[in-house]
Structures are given as structure tokens and as C-alpha cells.
Request: fold
Amino acid sequence: MTIRKIAVVGAGTMGSGIARAAAGSGFEVTLLDRDDALAACGLSKIREGLDRKVRSGEFDGRVRDDMLSILKSSGKLGDCADADLVIEAAAEQEPIKREIFKTLDQICPTGTIFSTNTSSISITRLASVTNRPDRFIGMHFMNPAYVMKLVEIVTGLRTSSETVAAIKAVAGKMGKTAIVVGDSPGFVANRILMPMINDAICCLHEGIASRESIDEIARSGANHPMGPLELADFIGLDICLEIMDVLHSELGEKYRPCPLLRKMVAAGKLGKKSGEGFYEYR
Reply:
């Protein structure tokens, strides 16, 4: 199957990043959210990011214009009807995702492939609400999606080999390293990453070391480009908590979220996007 048109549902940080990566690779892209204003806001963020690249000399203005010419926004799920591939990037909450896919299944032609950017939720469960589990797959992009090379290709129990091949081709065209993994809570990336972040938060919570020391130990001792607390702020502490809650419910006590993580989310300290997390941001 040749994929030319991609619809990205969810115009937040991940969705707009995925849309930018897709348009930069020549796909026609529609970026959608629950209303026109939110979708337009996502498109505006992409435009601002491209403008910065042009001003810094990293991008030619014509490259930016070509990308923007094949990008549009919409607040109506019905505008997914002509997409060859739909990538869902909504909130990391299973009921929300299930409802989106139920609606999409009625809107889109039977040949349209459905994909989800979920960080931790079962692909097989999400596919079960549609009539196309063979054309349902996970595409777990890393943040920021237009920079990071890895895409975890997550297969559900009934995902077909043809769907896997088609999605690997899409990821390849985007310049990504596509690695196929099985349908397990957190897949591989977050199964490794989130417990590390959670343990770093526990070290801070227990007073073992300061935030700066914990992050510097990871950078200098493990050669990580970012410390775990800084990375948590970048991801969003609410997202980290949602993923840890899934891991905890599916895999047991080993993955119980740190109480400090829960307190910070409850206080609205979500990291970089809210202006304050483990660090402060202007």
C-alpha cells in the first residue's frame, strides 16, 4: 500500500511534532484536534518552529514554504476520511483513545491504516474497538518527533505483516530508525526509561541528593545527554505519571509511581510546558 496522505489526530506537542516530521518528508498532512482553534494552534507552533530555522540559516525559506503548503489543520474528525494513514496522538488515556478510534472506524475507508502514538497502552486493546485490527499498529515516536530518530513499531495480536511493512516504509521515508517490538506495557523504550525517571524522583524525595546532583550523575556517569529529572520536565510530569500508572496496574508494585511525582502533578507542576517542574522555566 502506498501512503501519501496522513492525518494526525491531536495537535499537542507530540501530534504537531509528528505532523512536522511527516510534512518534512513530503507527505500531505492534516493536523486535527477537537476544535478548529486547537488544531490551528498546533499548526501555528509548527510554523513558528520552521520560521526559527529559517532565521538561524538551518532552513531555506522555500523548504519551509513547501512544507507549509502540504500541511493543513482541522477541528473535524471527518477530515480524516481521505487519509491513507491516521496517527492518533491524543492524551495518554485509554477511554479517550478508544472513543477516537470508534469514531474513525465509521469515518475512514476500510483500507485506511490506524496507528497510535501511545506510550504504554495495549495496541491489541485499542484495535479491538475497530473492525480493522489487522490494519492497526503502534507508532511510538520520541519527543521531539521531528528530531529524534527512533520510532517503536508496535504490533498488536492481529496486526498484519502488510501493515508492518507499510508503516516501516513510512518511518523510513521520515528518516527514522524503525524497530518492531511486541505489545507489552510500556513497550521497550518506556519500560526502561520511566522506572529510571521514577527512581530518580524517589532519590530526590528521600533526600539522597539534590536535583542538580542526580542529573549530573546521569550525565557524567552514564553519558546521558539529559539528567532524568530534566528529562521528566521535558516529557511532562503528567505524561510520566500516566505511563507509570499503566505500568503499575499491568506489571505490579515494582512500577508504583513515586509519591512526589503524584504531588507535583496534583499541584500543576508539570515541567517545561507549565513553567515549573523539578526546575523553573521562563
Summary: DSSP finds eleven helices and eight strands in the chain. The first strand starts at residue 5 and ends at 9.
